[in-house]
# Entry
Amino acid sequence: MLRATHTAKPPVSGHGPDTGGRRLPRILHPVAWWIWALALATAVSRTNNPLLLLLVLAVLGYVVTARRTEAPWARGFKYYLYLALTVVAIRVVFRAVFATGITPHDHFLFSLPRIPTPDWYAGIQLGGPVSLEALLSAATDGLRLACMLCCIGAANTLANPKRALRVLPGALHELGVAVTVAISVAPQLVQSVQRVARARRLRAGRGKGVKALRGIVVPVLEDALERSLRLAAGMDSRGYGRAGTATRRSRRLTGALMLLGMCGLCAGAYGLLDATAPAFLGLPAMGIGALLCVAGLRLGGRRVARTTYRPDPWRLPEWAVAGAGVLSAVLLFSNVGYDAAELNPSIYPLSWPTLPMVPTFAILLAGTAGFLAPPPTPPRPVIPAQRTQKAGIT
# Structure
């Protein structure tokens, strides 16, 4: 028996009595998060100042903590941090093993046994004395690469990769599916490891370290294989890989337009980077290449018929988040208001790096995405059986 009850409808706007003037939670457009993360990674590539790089990691941690959802892929940012630490450690170890010698002004730390190398391997030595300056330089280079990896990890954590597939042009749909599957591997593996570890704890499994590796790896691999088979079956049932009604002439024309467009973009990039190149190899070649690529995408997208259910909106928060990341990269590449040497401080002589104001402001500006983005959608609560019976459902 179902007893009828009256429930009040939630307010439509974010200024109703139940929200107290706060914004309604919703999922931000995934492309906005990717633009923000890639722009911040571009800004990171501009500097090797360890203070700025650590500030970038702090900004990434704040934004991910403030705006991640409860989805399975939103729990993997800590694993990207582990990967970042591994990258830094590998970079330092390689610099210590492949020693380049020290100068009289370096601070000697230790010396590794030297391994003789053949004549054709001249210029590179294995082992030898290691200085503090060499290890600090290697750690800084590794930290920059680690920050870039964490930027990509933040994008994977904050953005739903399946939602990002909706906004791709029709001609890139198949490529987008492949990229989506590729970037979804890491979050799915994290979810599988967490599920297997939780099942081991429920079964009173107390093995840790190397002893527990076999009990975790085998179920995770089996789960990955089953997921791959289900994905293949689902893609085949939805007609993935079929060419549709496109004629051979249209496919050739699409390929020619894309090939010429890419050549134009490459020539334009070369013309912009080389000051001695002719003028027509700069912006004109890049503009023509971009137009040819757009024409090829439009022509190739006609053969892919897609429907969109509840498209993701692009509103003011999306513009604000993407703009914060792009403006951060522009400020770091503009060299306005600060000395360019402050972005790449020299190890020699050994001294504490400075913290320039404009780059610091630019990185903090990227951190405003933590409150410019709307709060994420909370997970749906599960109603227990007892509460269902009290509501009148018998």
